[in-house]
Write a structure and sequence with these properties.
flat; 4-stranded antiparallel sheet; 3 domains; Four Helix Bundle (Hemerythrin (Met), subunit A); alpha/beta
């Protein structure tokens, strides 16, 4: 299996040292609902994880939540709630949406606010070995303390100084130095540290969590291409300076970005479609197909026509699985399809080529069925390889059918009550209660819930 390594800029053979692959994927900052760009990242690494498991590996998968930073504080302030309340609400929604998309859960979802002790210990170690320094309660990393800064993003440190993306503070030693610890400002949440109350910087959070949960050198570190610089570049600098071990991550994988029109989809740009909005309008399988219809390192454009096209493609796959096959001595030989599928996935997770194999198999199933040959082996192979891509291939969420029926019965009950036919209305209410559905009549509307 070969994977493109951002660190080397080359596609290299991926050979884990053992049977367990350690994988850290940068998660969301939950200051607002997650958007489809986040969904694409999750689906890409879910497919990679599923394929590694298909090949016999175990995957130790960690995905973090950055639940404290400037945007979290600003978002909570605007809503008049605490930062922890904001984080909890958006994290809960995100995890439910990932379940709906068929994304396998990570082994752990550490949160920055729960890892303060590890973060403080790491910062203390960096100060001790002169890689960092403290001024007035703030702690900064000395970028020039390492000779290979810029190796991930392929940037020249001398050219970075004039266009540094980090804020320039008068008291920093160098404009390139980035914050590891930020002293508390009025009204901000804070934690105790040797340098006074404050909170961690963005970059140190991920390093501390990766080292705590996966060790000093991990197999895969992933995220969107927009994280390469400065976030992942700074992760490497501080992690390798702290541990003294290189490489911090053997492979760096970065997925392409989702565009809405000509621009990258972004919360800060205000041009985003949330995952919830996308799932309300389209099936989870169609969204997954959209995300993997292009190579994971390529950008995709999200629009209604593109998703509808994937819905149509899904129907072609489902149609092949619904065919009633005859049991004859003639069996479909699907070995070439499995080989071609694996070759595509081994080639830097080439999902477009893998999908082409799937649709070749769909055509072959239809062809064999038309002439009366057995197709069950073909259908089983189709289920197997679409499963590696995480496609559920369900016609409809079964809950949505029952939800529609419940709403319909509630409408009938309301009509009966308005017609003073209370006995029949009560029968509907009692019948639903027997099925575990409790109706609650309010002033303006009737609501319902499933009882545990």
């Amino acid at each position: 299996m070969k994977i493109h390594n951002t660190l080397s800029g080359k596609t290299e053979s991926f050979k884990p040292t053992g049977n367990t692959v350690s994988m850290y994927v940068c998660g969301i900052t939950p200051y607002s609902p997650a958007h489809v760009g986040h969904a694409m990242r999750s689906v890409v690494f879910d497919v990679f994880k599923r394929y590694l498991e298909y090949k016999g590996f175990q995957v130790l998968h960690i995905e973090n939540f950055t639940d404290i930073d400037d945007k979290m504080i600003e978002g909570a302030s605007k809503q008049g709630i605490s930062v922890s309340e904001l984080a909890e609400s958006n994290i809960s929604s995100y995890l439910k949406e990932m379940d709906m998309l068929g994304v396998l859960r990570a082994n752990s979802y550490p949160r920055a606010t729960a890892e303060i002790e590890n973060i403080v210990d790491m910062i203390s170690g960096l100060i001790e070995n002169k890689s960092a320094y403290e001024i007035n309660g703030d702690v900064y990393f000395r970028v020039r303390s390492i000779s290979d800064y810029g190796k991930l993003s392929d940037r020249d440190i001398e050219k970075l100084k004039s266009g540094a993306r980090v804020a320039i503070a008068d008291h920093k030693e160098d404009a390139l130095d980035f914050a590891l610890w930020k002293s508390q400002k009025p009204g901000e949440p804070a934690w105790q540290s040797p340098w006074g109350p404050g909170r961690p910087g963005w970059h140190i959070e991920c390093s501390a969590m990766a080292l705590e949960y996966l060790g000093e050198s991990i197999d895969i570190h992933g995220g969107g291409q927009d994280l390469i610089f400065p976030h992942h570049e700074n992760e490497i600098a501080q992690s390798e300076s702290f541990s003294g071990i290189k490489p911090f991550a053997k492979f760096w994988m970065h997925n392409g970005l989702v565009r809405l029109g000509e621009d990258k989809m972004s919360k800060s740009l205000g041009n985003m479609v949330t995952i919830g909005q996308a799932l309300d309008a389209h099936s989870a399988d169609a969204l997954r197909l959209l995300f993997i219809s292009a190579h994971y390192r390529s950008p995709i454009t999200y629009n209604e026509d593109a998703v509808v096209a994937q819905e149509n493609a899904l129907q072609r796959i489902k149609s092949a699985l619904k065919l009633d096959g005859l049991e004859t001595e003639s069996k479909m030989d699907t070995s070439s399809y499995i080989t071609n599928f694996e070759n595509a996935m081994d080639d830097d997770l080439n999902t477009p080529k893998a999908l082409a194999v799937i649709f070749d198999l769909v055509r072959e199933i239809h062809k064999e069925h038309k002439v009366g040959n057995a197709i069950s082996d073909g259908q089983e192979t189709l289920k197997k390889i679409t499963g590696v891509l995480g496609l559920g291939l369900q016609d409809k969420n079964p809950d949505s059918d029952s939800d529609d029926l419940i709403e319909f019965l509630i409408e009938i009950r309301l009509s009966l009550r308005n017609a003073n036919q209370y006995e029949l209305a009560d029968k509907i209410r009692d019948g639903l209660l027997d099925l575990g559905i409790q109706i609650e009549d309010g002033v303006d509307k009737t609501s319902w819930k499933r009882l545990p």
